[in-house]
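Propose amino acids for all 204 sites.
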C-alpha cells in the first residue's frame, strides 16, 4: 500500500510500511520457500487429531470400551465440550506458526487496539515459539515410545483393529509438530537479525 503526494504538479508515491515489507519479502529478507512450507506443515499437524476428537465429541464411536470417558461421550456434556475446546486450542496454536513467516509476525496488525502497527520484538516470538517447540518435541518423543504402553493404547479399554489405526494415524503428525516449529523459529530469528542489519542473511 502506498500514499500519494502532489509535488510541483506531479503525483508521487511515498513508501509505507507495507511497501517496505513487500520489497523485503521479494529480497534477501524473505522466508525461503522451504521454511514457508515447514510453517504450513507445522500449522496442519494438530488438525487430524483435532478432527478425531471433535468426531468423538459429537458422538462418533472411537473404539474405546469399558469405563473409559472416551467410551461414553455424549454431545453437549462437559467432557465433549472439553474435547472440542482442546481441539480448537491446538489448532489455534498451530496457526500461530504462520506468524513466523508472515508480516503479522513482525508488525502487529493495525486493527488491534493500542499496539496495532507496532513492531514485534524478535524475542517476543522466538522465546515462546522456542519453548513450545521444545515441549512439543519432548511430548512427541514420549508419545512415540509410550504409545502402546499399558496406560495408553495398550490398555484393555483402548481401541483395537481399525479404530486403533485410525487414532494412531490421526495422532502421528503431532510427532513432527515440535521439530517443524523449531526449524521455523530458528529461521525466523535468523531472518529478523539479518533484517536488523546485525548479521548477513544466510544463503539458504
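Proposal:
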Amino acid at each position: 500500500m502506498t500514499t500519494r503526494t502532489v509535488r510541483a504538479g506531479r503525483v508521487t508515491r511515498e513508501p509505507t510500511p507495507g511497501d517496505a515489507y513487500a520489497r523485503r519479502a521479494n529480497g534477501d529478507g524473505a522466508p525461503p520457500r522451504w521454511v514457508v512450507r515447514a510453517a504450513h506443515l507445522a500449522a496442519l499437524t494438530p488438525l487430524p487429531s483435532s478432527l478425531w476428537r471433535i468426531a468423538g465429541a459429537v458422538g462418533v464411536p472411537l473404539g474405546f470400551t469399558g469405563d473409559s470417558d472416551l467410551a461414553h461421550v455424549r454431545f453437549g456434556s462437559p467432557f465433549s465440550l472439553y474435547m472440542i475446546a482442546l481441539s480448537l486450542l491446538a489448532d489455534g496454536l498451530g496457526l500461530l506458526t504462520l506468524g513466523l513467516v508472515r508480516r503479522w509476525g513482525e508488525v502487529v496488525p493495525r486493527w488491534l487496539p493500542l499496539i496495532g502497527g507496532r513492531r514485534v520484538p524478535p524475542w517476543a516470538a522466538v522465546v515462546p515459539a522456542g519453548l513450545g517447540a521444545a515441549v512439543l518435541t519432548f511430548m512427541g518423543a514420549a508419545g512415540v515410545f509410550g504409545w502402546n504402553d499399558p496406560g495408553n493404547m495398550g490398555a484393555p479399554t483402548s481401541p483395537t483393529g481399525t479404530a486403533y489405526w485410525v487414532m494412531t494415524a490421526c495422532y502421528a503428525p503431532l510427532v513432527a509438530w515440535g521439530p517443524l516449529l523449531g526449524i521455523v523459529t530458528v529461521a525466523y530469528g535468523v531472518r529478523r537479525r539479518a533484517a536488523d542489519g546485525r548479521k548477513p542473511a544466510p544463503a539458504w
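Residues 11-28 have pLDDT under 50 and may be disordered. The CA atoms of residues 92 and 189 lie 22 Å apart.
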